[in-house]
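Risk mitigation, structural track. In case the binding assays with copper (II) ion fail to produce interpretable data, a predicted complex structure has been prepared as a fallback.
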Amino acid sequence: MKKIVAALVVIVIAVIAWLAFGGSNGSNNGTANSSGSGQNRQPAATNSVTIQNFSFNPADIKIKKGIKVTWTNRDSTGHTVTENDGQNGPASQILGNGQSYSFTFNQDGTYHYHCTIHTEMTGTVTVAD
Ligand SMILES: [Cu+2]
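Fallback model:
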């Protein structure tokens, strides 16, 4: 019986380690995550998004209404933060390396956005009270 418990502990630790590793690495491949059935992208509670390696990091965030979100481009390539659905969401100019763009979300909702230059780059901001 003790052997079974020990084996379970090892498995749990392995799963935790795997999740931790996958969490820090998964951002490199946002398109694969969005189609994976078992891998829901869990929104991060932050108001700061880094644009790096042609992806928004974290891609999915959640904030309270009235919070200002800032995106900062760490790629040498230019990117934009452009809302998809015309909900008066973020609409940046092209951001060069090191440049930031901020947008304050004053209405509840889920805002999908992308980069107009690289349309495969996507993210969401969920705004709730
Ligand atoms: Cu881009």
